[in-house]
Write a structure and sequence with these properties.
two-stranded antiparallel sheet; alpha+beta; globular; about 180 residues; about 20% helix
């Protein structure tokens, strides 16, 4: 998958992500901390995606967003967690008993989270790269290993497809088609 994920819907093809490509090296992130902050990050991504997809404009599809984040950089200091992440959000629906992918976006982001009194984390800020000019500079200033010459961010769609099949009650081996 390239860094520019295409969204297809209603006969139109729209690029939903920033211009430029970037790479993700294997993360040395604290897995225990990542497992605690990941749910807050992914919930935020799903919340932000709602209303942005083609499938939501077609009520018969019962479309829903599914998002996944992978840690690139993770640091905790002074009560805040800085999470540099690669994100993938895909909108799935159902047509004629088949899973359909309607829209999607794959982008790098930097989120900051604060731990609440109950132990849960909440996102307090979120940044993404600008479109066009300034993208490469943003990437190199926000990710210690980011480069603009690579094409693959490495966020797998498989877990999102599985979650969507489960949500819609479809068999685990049902194929995914475009909206």
């Amino acid at each position: 998958m390239s860094a520019g994920r295409w969204a297809v819907g209603g006969g139109a093809v729209v690029v939903l992500v920033a211009t430029g490509a970037w790479a993700r090296w294997p993360s040395d992130a604290d897995s225990h901390l990542w497992n605690r902050v990941r749910p807050a990050i992914e919930a935020r991504l799903v919340e932000q995606s709602r209303g942005a997809g083609y499938g939501e404009s077609e009520p018969g599809l019962r479309a829903r967003w599914f998002c996944r984040a992978e840690a690139v950089d993770l640091d905790e200091r002074d009560g805040l967690v800085r999470a540099g992440v690669s994100t993938l959000c895909l909108e799935y629906g159902v047509r004629a008993g088949r899973l359909v992918e309607c829209s999607g976006a794959e982008v790098p982001q930097v989120l900051r989270l604060r731990r609440e009194a109950d132990g849960a984390y909440v996102v307090v800020s979120q940044e993404g790269p600008p479109d066009g000019a300034g993208n490469a500079e943003w990437m190199s200033s926000h990710f210690r290993h980011a480069i603009t010459a690579a094409l693959d961010t490495g966020v797998p769609a498989g877990p999102l497809e599985s979650a969507a099949r489960s949500h819609f009650g479809l068999p685990a081996n049902s194929p995914v088609t475009e909206c």
